[in-house]
């Protein structure tokens, strides 16, 4: 089983749609969780950290379920510029700064 | 956010040559830097963790004699791909963290290596 699993997609959605991505992780000792966005041939950029209480940043909402070891990202009112690969990232456990990356979910927002 | 630079952004070299990639944290001191490799349509794979002033910790399957890492200062880490071969062609990305309670990694723009 992969340490961090994501549906690779692609998700093709029309502008204005709401889309949700899910991610599961295997290491119950992981303490920090993130969603990164990666555009083609570019480096990953932090989209948002994920907290147990859930957090929202504009059109983006992230949720963490520690019991199920599950993380989600919801994008509302999709824009063309949201087209990218979304990477679920989990830290390697307590006392480490190592990141474990999921394979990413490709999103394409269509006009 | 914090800024991390990488140089060069792209390099093409002949098989058998060595290539050095620099990673710099421009506006903060990076106690830890990470080196990743990403092949097309795959995710980032951690190669090694680099701590200032100490030897790098390599992930399983990564040859330390092939991928030499030096982290001589709090703002600079270098990765040298020795005797590069075509299968080493990849996108190499570094990241840096300032440590402490803040675990966010800031990524460099990456270096695209093509070995002919």
Overall description:
- The complex is a heterodimer of chains A (111) and B (116).
- By secondary structure, chain A is mainly β.
- Chain A has no helices and 11 strands.
- Chain A has strands at residues 4-6, 11-14, 19-25, 33-38, 44-50, 55-57, 60-65, 70-75, 84-91, 99-101, 105-110.
- In chain A, strands 2, 4, 5, 9, 10 and 11 form a 6-stranded mixed sheet that branches.
- In chain B, the strands form 2 sheets. In chain B, strands 2, 4, 5, 6, 9, 10 and 11 form a 7-stranded mixed sheet that branches. A 4-stranded antiparallel sheet of chain B has the order 1-3-8-7, with no helix packed on it.
- By secondary structure, chain B is mainly β.
- Chains A and B meet through β5 and β10 of A and β5, β9 and β10 of B.
What's the gist of this structure?
The complex is a heterodimer of chains A (111) and B (116). Chain A is mostly beta strands. Chain A contains no helices and eleven strands.
Report the β-strand fraction of chain B as a percent range.
Answer: over 45%
Radius of gyration of chain B: 13 Å
* Main sheet: strands, sense, barrel of chain A: 6 strands, mixed
Number of strands of chain A: 11
The assigned structural class of chain A equals: mainly beta
**Percentage of residues assigned to helices of chain A:** under 10%
Q: What string gives the helices and strands of chain B in order?
A: EEEEEEEEEEE
Uncertain residue segments of chain B? none
Global Rg of chain A: 13 Å
- Helix content class of chain B: under 10%
In oligomeric terms, what are we looking at?
heterodimer
General form of chain B: globular
Of all chain pairs, the largest interface belongs to: A-B, 19 and 23 residues
Q: What is the straight-line distance between the termini of chain B?
A: 36 Å
Per DSSP, the total helix count of chain B is 0
Q: What's the order of the H and E elements of chain A?
A: EEEEEEEEEEE
- Return the average pLDDT of chain B rounded to an integer: 91
Question: Which strand-content bin applies to the residues of chain A?
Answer: over 45%
What composes the largest sheet of chain B? 7 strands, mixed
Specify the overall morphology of chain A.
globular
Through-space gap between termini of chain A? 37 Å
């Amino acid at each position: 089983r992969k340490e961090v699993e994501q549906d690779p997609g692609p998700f093709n959605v029309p502008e204005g749609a709401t889309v949700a991505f899910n991610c599961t992780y295997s290491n119950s000792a992981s303490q920090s969780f993130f969603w990164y966005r990666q555009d083609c041939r570019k480096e990953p950029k932090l989209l948002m950290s994920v907290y147990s209480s859930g957090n929202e940043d504009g059109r983006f909402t992230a949720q963490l379920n520690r019991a199920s070891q599950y993380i989600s990202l919801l994008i509302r009112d999709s824009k063309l510029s949201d087209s990218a690969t979304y990477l679920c990232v989990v830290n390697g456990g307590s006392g480490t700064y190592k990141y474990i990356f999921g394979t990413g979910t490709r999103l394409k927002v269509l006009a | 956010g914090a800024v991390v630079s990488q140089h060069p952004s792209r390099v093409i070299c002949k098989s058998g040559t060595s290539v050095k990639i620099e990673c710099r944290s421009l506006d903060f001191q990076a106690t830890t830097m990470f080196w990743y490799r990403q092949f097309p349509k795959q995710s980032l794979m951690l190669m090694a963790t680099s701590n200032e002033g100490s030897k790098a910790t390599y992930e399983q399957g990564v040859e330390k004699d092939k991928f030499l890492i030096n982290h001589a200062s709090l703002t600079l880490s270098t990765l040298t791909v020795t005797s590069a071969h075509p299968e080493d062609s990849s996108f190499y990305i570094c990241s840096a963290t300032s440590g402490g309670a803040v675990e966010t990694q800031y990524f460099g723009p990456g270096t695209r290596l093509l070995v002919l």
